[in-house]
Amino acid sequence: MTRKRGNRAVRVVALVVAALLLPACAGLPTSGDVAVGLKLGESPQDVDILPVASGPVTGAGPEEIVEGFLEAGITTTDNWDTARDFLAPSLQRSWSPSAGVSIDLGADTRTVTSSVPDDEVESAETAEVQVTLDLVASVDESGGYSEALGSSNVAFTLQRMENGEWRITQAPDGIVIDETRFTKVFEGYPLQYFDLGWSRLVPDMRWFPRRQSPATTVTRALIGGAPSEWLDPAVQNAFPADVQLAQDAVPIVGQVADVALTRPASGLDATTLARMRTQLQATLRAAGVAVTEVRFTVDGRNLDAGMADVVEPSATTGTLVLQNGAFGRIVGDEISPISGISSEISAITQPIVSIDVAADDSRAAVQLADQHVYLIGEGSLDELDARPGLIKPALDPYGYTWSVPAGAPTAVQATGSDAVAHQIAKAWPSASAISHLRVAADGARVAAVLTVGKQMWVVVAAVVRDSAGVPIELGEFTQLTQLSEPAVGLVWLGADRVGVLADPSSPRLLTQMVGGPGSAEAAPSNAIAIAGARTASGVRILGANGELFAHAGSAWREVASGITILATRAGE
Which end of the chain is more exposed for a tag (fewer CB within 10 A), N or C? Predict the structure, then answer.
C-alpha cells in the first residue's frame, strides 16, 4: 500500500522550554555545565523551545509505527529514548541516532509504502515499509552540514511482537527531521581551527542537538575530531592526535572551563599548550559558552597554558562609496576620505567598475571600464591584470589581489603589492565559468559563484598558502547552494556566512551559512550591487538610480542617494 503521510500515530504533544523547570521533588544536577539563567530583562518566553514527540500508540500498524519513529527524531532527550520505543528490543541497543541527519522538506511530502495491505494488517506477522523523502540537506556523524537535494528511499522491516504490537526490527542509523524544525532541534557551533601560519582562527560549522551540553559537545568535537574535509588543506588543529579528553564532561565553574586531558598532554611545550588553549577558548566563546579562561589538567594537576597571539578581524567599519566624485566612508550626508586612497580614486578619469579596499585601508583593488585590474596605494596606480573578460577583483588579508577571467575559472591569479602575479593551482577544475569571487577575512577560504555543467552554484574552497603567506593552490570546493538565476554580487557577512544578490529581474538576497542552511528575502527592486559587513544586518545594497539601502527590520530603507559605486572591503 502506498500513501502520502496523513494522520500521525505520534503527535507533537508539547513545546518544552529548553531549560526545563525542575519539579519540587527533583534533585539538583550533580554533573554537566553550569547553566546560565535569564538575562536582566529577558522573559521565559524569549528562551528557545524544543518540540517533543510521544511514543507508540497501542494498536498502530506498520506505517504508523514508521511514521512515529521518524517523527520522534525531533526528541533528542536521553539519546533519542522516545524513538527507541518504536524499535524491537534487539534494535534498540544497536541503532545509532548520532550517525547523521537527513533533512527533508517535511512530513507531508513523505510517501510511505507498505508491503501489507490495510485489510491484512491484523493477520500479518512481518512487514516491509519504504519511505520516500524529498531531501534538502544532510548532517554527517561529525556534525558537518551539506546541501543534498533530491529523492531518497529509506527501508524498514517490522515484526509483530509477542504482545501483538508492531515494532521495527531493521532501520538505518541516523534520524530524519524536516527543514522547518531542524534549527529548533539542532544548533550550529563554529569550531575554531588555526590557519597554516598559526596566526588566524578559521571557523568550521558543526551541528549538534540543542539539549546536549555545549561546552562538552564542542570540546569533544574539537579535541577528538578533525576539520571538514574541504577545509582541511588550509587549517590545522593545535591538539596533538594522542591528546584526548580524560573525562567526558567539561564543567564550567566561575566562567572557567576545567578540561581534563590524557597524560600525553603533560609533555607538551608552552607554545603548543598556548595554541590549544587559544583554540578551545575561542571555540567555546563562539558556541555561546560564557568563559573567561580554559584550564587544562592532567591527573588533577594544572598545566601552565598561556595564550597565543592571533590576528583579530579588522574593527574598521563604515560603508564605502563613490559619490559625486568623492570616495570614502559615508557618514550621514558627508564623505569621510581615506588617507592615501580617496584622492587617487577621485583622480581616475576612466569610469570605475568596482572598488575593493584593504582591511587596513592601505590600498584598494579597482576595476576600470577597460576591465583591467589596478592596485591603488598612496601616490600609485599599478596595473595588475590586463587579461580580457576579468570579473571584479578581490583583495585578501595578506595584500594579494585575486583576479580571474569569467570564461576561464581555472586561471586564477593572486598579485602582490609588488605587482608579481602568482598562479593559483587547482582552481575550480570542473567549472566552465565564474562570475564572482571573494576571499574570507581569515584568508583561508574563498567563496565563488561557478557554473558547473549547466548549473550555477555558490561554492567555497580552502586556500593553501606557503610559509610566506602566498596563496599557491585551492582545495576541492564544496557546494553551498544552487542558484536558479544569475548572481549580481557575492559578499561575506561575518566569518560564517556569505550573501548573494541574485536574479537581476526580481532581486533577492540569499544569506547562506557556510556549513549550514540559508535563507532568502526580497531585495530592493532595482538592486545592482551589494557590500558585505561583519554581520548580516550590516549588508548594504545599491540601487540602479544611485540609492543606498540598508536593512530596517525586515524591510529596506534608503539611507543615501547619488551613489556611483558601492565599494567592498577585503574579507567582506
Answer: N
